[in-house]
From TrEMBL, chain A:
SMART domains for the chain: AAA (SM00382)
UniProt family annotation: Belongs to the ABC transporter superfamily.
Gene3D superfamilies: P-loop containing nucleotide triphosphate hydrolases
Keywords assigned by UniProt, alphabetized: ATP-binding, Nucleotide-binding, Transport
Family matches, as SUPFAM superfamilies: P-loop containing nucleoside triphosphate hydrolases
The species this protein was found in: Actinacidiphila paucisporea
GO molecular function: ATP binding; ATP hydrolysis activity
Domain ABC transporter: 5-230
Protein name from the UniProt record: ABC-2 type transport system ATP-binding protein
Automatic annotation (TrEMBL), chain B:
Natural source organism: Actinacidiphila paucisporea
Species lineage: Bacteria, Bacillati, Actinomycetota, Actinomycetes, Kitasatosporales
Protein name, per record: ABC-2 family transporter protein
Record key words, sorted: Membrane, Transmembrane, Transmembrane helix
GO molecular function, one term: ABC-type transporter activity
Pfam families found in the cross-reference section: ABC2_membrane_2
GO cellular component: plasma membrane
Ranges annotated as spanning the membrane: 38-58, 324-344, 365-391, 411-432, 439-461, 506-527
Keyword Manganese: no
Presence of keyword Secreted: no
Gene3D superfamilies: 2.60.120.200
Amino acid sequence: MEATIEVTGLRKRFGPTAALDGMTFTVTPGRITGFVGPNGAGKSTTMRVILGLDSADEGTALIGGLRYRALRNPLSHVGSLLDAGALQPSRSARGHLLWLAHSQGLPARRVDEVVDAAGLATAARRKAGGFSLGMRQRLGIAAALLGDPPVLIMDEPFNGMDPEGIVWMRGLLRSLAAEGRAVLVSSHLMSELQDTAHHLVVVGRGRVIADTSVADLIAAASGDRVTLRTTARAQAMTVLAQAGAVVAATGPETLTVSGIGSQRVAGLLGRAEVPFSEIGAHRATLEEAYMELTRDAVEFPAGGAR
Amino acid sequence: MTGTATATPYRSARHTGRDGFLRTLHGEWTKFRTVRGWVIGTVAAALVTVAVGLLGAAGSSIACSGPDGGSCDHTPRTGPGGEEVRDAMTLVHRSLTGDGGITVRITSLAGLYAPGGRAQVGAGPGTGMVAGLQPWTKAGVIVKDGTKEGSAYAAVALTGGHGVRMQYDYTHDLAGTPGAVSASSPRWLRLTRAGDTLTGYDSTDGTHWATIGTAHLAGLPATVQMGLFTTSPEYVVTSGSFSGSSYGGPSKATAAFDSVALRGRTGGAWTGDLVGGPDRGPGAGGSDLGYKESGGTYTLTGSGDVAPQVPGRGSPGKTVETTLVGAFAGLMVVAVIATMFVTAEYRRGLIRTTLTASPLRGRVLAAKAAVVGAVSFATGLAAAAVAVPLVEAVEKSKHFPMYPTPFATDVRIVVGTAALFAVTAVLALALGTVLRRSAGAVTTVVVAIVLPYILAVAAVLPAGPSRWLTRLTPAAAFAVQQSVHQYAQVSVDYTPADGYFPLSPWAGFSVFCGYAAAAVAAAAVLLRRRDA
């Protein structure tokens, strides 16, 4: 089976609200695809539809060309982590993995392997009800890895993890992608994916806003803006504005210039003998790019009327 | 392609083999056994079943007082089929060796009974007894394996209210010519023996005979007793008020026979016996029970019954199902666990994990039902197999008479109780799947099973509504624990409160299975249709 997730034209309504409004994207093997968007953008619903848990009103979600319900021993095709809290509190971590293994015809030995891989060896026989959220995430990862699947789907796996756990999770996801697996990871915080994802599917209001590589997204958000550092801020603003540039003061000694390139800025300032210490193309953060994209798609913007 | 994608998709080295129901089942079984509370709860369900039965037995007491000084010792008389029987009559007999027969004419049958049950049977006329026949007063001819109580027999008799009947070995009853007898319209009765086969006939003119039926009394010895008998059972009054009750009193009957004709190798002289006496009848002095012979006319006065002994309210005897009163409590525990087996998943969102592991939802429901059904069956089987002999032993140690039941009935009751546990668990699981909430599902199970059972069996409602409840509601299932039998030829108050369900054991259980099947079907449809 080819390890590809193809989501095509998914639509789903919950009463008057369109949770999914033509969601379309593809997750390819060998890289981490970040699935980002504000809360309520339809990330979890899309994942539930992919996993055959929710049915879409329209559209298809295929894994290697098959609907999830058509998969046999599905955990060997797709590993998923939707809700780390989905545990019977009185069952031990090992018990949880054991019933999953048995349901797939996997031996108990495989449980021990994933327990070790998730760093749960010392806690495996404890009741899952006593686990911290971070440990539950590790248990969820162990469950997702149980069938050694070529496709992984994880909903907010960084939630509740301590910094050490986040570093571990990033390393794990990268190595899984490096092995040639397709990895889809959702987050409502772009910063979590900044140094993790190779590719991004940005969603808002049930549809895809951007489907691009991380580098392209940042380049697009950066535009042709130039960042300038100067002690003579007022002088510089006058000179550049006369040349037709749009200038914005972003700090006591920094300006952002758009409309003209960095070479032209340097030339103008040199001719006018305005001193400057630094000049360069503006590089947007992923966070900025994301904010830009999702400005219109945020369901409940901060400060907005609820 | 953008980004740092590598070209080779991942291939697992793992071979998982074929998918199937057994894997889902294995997963669900592991799921069940890895929650200690459920395993402990299952053991508790068995223990509580036994404990409540023992508690009932330990709390019971029986005290006997009477003219003889109050011994409660009760030795049950059992018939050829192993069930408890009554065998009390006035019998006039001779021996018969080999094949033969008896023919008589019966010219009168009259009875007396004591309304309110106050008079002594043997006290004679004028001491509170009034004239009247009981419906199952019997007078006729009989072939019997000796005069010991409970021995095999076949008889053709005229009854007080059901015409001529052929009855044999206590539990069998065949209808002959209907109608009553009088001096102007006598009745002829005939019973013939050929080996093990006895054939009954009746006639209204002594010329034209009608065959009533035949009985095969296996193992009947060559020499048997053949003759005339008369007996008359207690009369029964059933009041139909709330928590209706019945009471009754003794009766006796006198019948006159003539034209007695015997066939075959008969021996000995005519001998009169009060079978089942003397404790069944009055004391020797002043008794008018017995027989007189004058000019070929035999007049027999008898009291008692030749019929199965049926337990009922007010009788001190305990039936085997009373040892299983605790099944109730056990069922509730099982229902709670079975409900939790699915509702706990909904509560935590674990159902999504389950359905990603096994996307075929009907298969998941079937696997869950198989697990809780099998676990509950084993629980019910262990509980009933322990409770029945243990509680019986306690009751016996307290001198409670136990109604004997054939072994096959005991097995049916124990296995039936196990099946009751299993189907209750499946029903609870299905309701839990439909409602997705423990409280609602458990409440529904209790309302569906326990409420009608209590209303009907604890005699809260009168007999009529009780019968409907135990026929139509899931409480019909408790019929599977019924050891008692309803006999048309014995008049007692056959109500659910007395342990008599309107449906046969497996028919009642099927009603319950119908409910469970409907719930499972609804659960399967909703589980498939709804988002998880």
